[in-house]
Amino acid sequence: MPHVTVKLWPGRPDEVKKALAEQLAKDVAEGLKVDLGDVSVAFEEVNPADWGEKVYKPEIRDNMDKLYVQPNYEYE
Known about the structure:
Layout: E1 3-8, H1 14-32, E2 40-45, H2 48-60
Parallel strand pairs: 1-2
């Protein structure tokens, strides 16, 4: 069922990612009215030097019409 992938720069400890994943799973389950066991959350670390090409341009800039929450930054 719902799967969430969080893309972020490397460096956050596993404990921080685990806590966030649990909170996101709870919020997704509640918001979509599904069982918590139906939700999965993953993290994909992307190096800052690759962010523009691998994340910002293809997933953010080129998909603004699909984003329900848009960032307030631009990335080259």
